[in-house]
Request: fold
Amino acid sequence: MNFKKILPYNRHTFSSFFSFERTPLNVFMLMLTVGLVGFLLYGISVYLQHGHHAYGVTRQHPWGLLIAMYVFFVVSSTGLCIMSSLGHVFNIKAFQIIGKRAIIGAIIAILTGFLVIAFEIGHPVRMVIYNVLTPGLTSAIWWMGTLYGMYLFFIILEFFFLNNGNHKYSKIFGLAGLIVGLAAHSNLGAVFGFLVARPIANGVFFPLYFILSAMVTGSYLLFLIYGWRYKMKFPPEVKKFMVTLAQVLGLLLAILIFFEIWRALTAIYGMMPERGDIAIHMITSKNFLIGEFLLGMLIPFVVIVYSRGRAIKTLVYTSITGMVGIFWMRYDLVHDTQLAPMMPLKIREYSLPPGLVEYTPTSIEWMIAIGAIGVSFMMYYTADKFFNLDHDAKGH
Amino acid sequence: MARYGMALDYKSCINCKACESACKEENGILLGADKHRIWVGVKDIEGIFPDLSISSSGFEPSQCQQCDNAPCQTVCPTNATYYDDNGVVRVNPEQCILCTYCMEACPYDARYIDDRTMTVDKCNFCSDTRLINGETTTACQATCPTKVRIFGDLDDPESEISLVLRARDHHSMKEHLGTKPKLFYLT
Ligand code: SF4
Ligand code: SF4
Reply:
């Protein structure tokens, strides 16, 4: 049986695998990737020696940067999956060219997310065993994890069939991946939304917001992936796709800003304790104003509105600020959820006098969190070498 | 088979922390501010001298509320957190994956990480050291010099706790969350 027939791939020797055009940008990316992976490996080695003591998490703030980073990666994955489904599941013409590249991006992002979470969950192997043996069916984490496992399986199959040109099956698995991905991702929102103890997170907002912000993230990533692929010299069909993408992104950002405004207003109105006060703290923080709002929403939105979506080159650059903003969205949602102390009378011996719970990630947490991005770069480089991720003449 | 609960005559608490020491000793809890199963909340005196409000000051001993509808149990992905036959919310360290979702979900900050097993732990009403041997006291209750704590079977109408809960007004913490705590504060 010829494997190449089933899944077409490019053969490589050791040197052809590592050969690339020595442009300054490529060399910079190589150095960046090596640096990031070095950070990751160092961070992991310290974690393996010291466990959670290497992190800044505490009893009152048990979830930290790595949870935020896990969310960041899986949001990216779901976002890419949703955006690519616009083309090959929903047949929107302009999006049909992105199938393979977006899906491989989704696979890479979720694998990186799993990598990060493996260094946050205390017993990842035990997790796999008892997830099956004694499933906690009322737990949003159980559903999220299980559905994400299925999602990964479906999108791998989708990628497989996209590559060997079987459109029927790629569509079926694309649809399955999309539905399961949406379920998994909204469940991740529910991991926070179900917390009755934490009024700032409790409610319907997060499950919906996760899907919406995933689509925004997917759009930013597509700008970056395609900007990188064509080094800003876009062929006409790609240009057309990017302009359409910019317009869709403009709409998504408008909805996101609308969501955020109403979230803030409903949280502050009435100043319910542990909600109103936390919301005010949240929206007046630099993380939110500069990170989330300015970088993540406003700058890209203004560029899109001002250029009517035509400034695609600028949008590639603003997608970098967009992704920085998306990172802060993830960080804040994890951190802000835990700001209110649960037992405010527990002072002196147990914790600091009443106030908001503090958390600062340690350098080890930063190394693992940011270093993981290097792994996704590596995986992308490898996938790009082995598979033909470009669309064919028929636009698939 | 019982349904254990605890009533706290908290206005008698003098913040001597004998209960906390007894708990640490009984259950072999590690040292460190983060590692405590029970604690004494302190209400600071309000007002400016000389107009201080004596009634504002006071102590509020607390611990896991042994919720009948425990959020920590609902969120546990592997059912490591479970209700035992006595209605006590327990953690099976073999099954705990240290996702810390329960710590996130508990409205009472009652859970902590045991660094020896690297799993989450909490008050279990001395199930491992006393209830299992047929005793019906807890270390914190036995040691309390001002007899703040009354421990017993809520399903037994003649138990001391049932009698006192029928006779005296009481409240529980954050009841509005629907957790159905089995810790009762006598007023
Ligand atoms: S107080 Fe917290 S740890 Fe104890 S049963 Fe209730 S939710 Fe669980
Ligand atoms: S940390 Fe352990 S006990 Fe708590 S929810 Fe996770 S698996 Fe369950």
About this structure: The CA atoms of residues 40 and 368 of chain A lie 5 Å apart.
